[in-house]
Model the fold of this input.
Amino acid sequence: MKTVLGIETTCDETAAAVVSVDPDGMPQIRSNEVLSQIAEHAVYGGVVPEIAARAHVEVLDRLVARALERAGTSLADLDGIAVAAGPGLIGGVLVGLVTAKTLSLVANKPLLAVNHLEAHALTARLTDGLDFPYLLLLASGGHTQLVAVRGVGDYVRLGGTIDDAIGEAFDKAAKLLGLGYPGGPAVERMAEDGDPERFALPRPMLGRRTADFSLSGLKTALRIEAERIAPLAERDVADLCAGFQAAVVDVVIDRARVALRGFSDVAGRPTALVAAGGVAANGAIRRALAALAGEAGLAFVAPPLALCGDNGAMIAWAGLERLRLGLVDDLTAPARPRWSL
Ligand code: KG4
Ligand code: ZN
Done:
C-alpha cells in the first residue's frame, strides 16, 4: 500500500488529506480536512491574497496534524508528501510548498510538486477509476478549459476562455446582484425559482468552430438588464440568475460539443465526459453535461461535491499518480503562480 499526504493552499481553501492506494490500485481517502476562508474574504467580495496567505500560515500545521491523525497514520508511515505548487496566489502557494518541503526533509520522504489543475483533472480517476483518455471540462474561479486528458502529464487543450473563467462570471454576476461571495452557489440557489426566459441574454461564441469560451459579454448584458429594471425586487434577481445560468449552460454545452468533435483527432475515442473544478458543483451544468454525454454514448463523471472544490485529497491522489510513475521532485521545486496544464 502507498500512502501520500496532500496539501492545498493555492487559493482560499486550506486543505490537507491522506490518500492510500492498495496493491490492486484501489484508492481510499483516509482523511480530507478543508478549512474555508470564505468568511474572511466575504466582506471584500473576493479573495484578498494577503489575507489568504496569512490565514494559510495560521492553520496549516494543525490541519496537517489533524489529517494524519484522522487517517490513523503518521509522517513516518507516508510514502510521499504532495503539495499544489501552483498555479495560484503566490503567497498561499509558498506557504504550502515550504511546509511540504520541510515535512519532506524532516521525514525523509519524496516531495511531489503537483499542478493544481492536474489534480482537478485526475480526480475522476480517484472517484470513479476512470481510464484514459477522457474529455474534461475544467471550470473554476480562475480557469475554464476543455482538455483531452490522455495520461498523467499528457494533456491537449481543445479550448479555453478568452476572458473570464466560468466561476469568475458567476462570482461577478452574484456581486452585481448583491448576492455575496462566492457567487456560484448563490446564483444557482436564486436561479431555482427564476424564469430563465424573461431576459434575453446572449450566448457568446455559440456555433464557433473552436471550443473557446467568452463570458465577459454575458456579464455586461446582465449588468445592462439589471440597471434597466433597477431597483431589483427578489423576483427580478431570481429571473436574472436563472437567465444567466441558462445562458452559461447553453454556452458550455455548445463548446463541449465542439470539443467532443475535436477529441478524436488528438486522442481517439474518450472513455467519458468529465467535469471538474468548483463550477462542476452546479446542478444545471451537471445535468446538461450528463445529457450531452448520453447523446454521444459516453459516461458522464463528475466528482462528488466535496471533491469538486479545492481539497487535499485531489492533491494527494495526483501525487500518488506521479509517484507510481517515478515523477518525484526535490527541494528545488519552484512555486509556480502561473502554470498551465
Ligand atoms: O475549484 P474552486 O473551488 O477554486 C478555484 O480553483 O477557483 O472553484 C471555485 C469557483 C468559484 O468561482 C465559485 O463561484 C464556483 O467555483 N462555484 C460554482 C458553484 N459552486 C462553486 N459555480 C457555479 N455553480 C455552483 N454551484
Ligand atoms: Zn481549484
The pocket of zinc ion (ligand 2) is lined by residues 116, 120, 140, 277, 310 (CB under 6 Å). Residues 22 and 170 are 39 Å apart (CA to CA). The first strand starts at residue 2 and ends at 8. The longest helix spans residues 234-267.
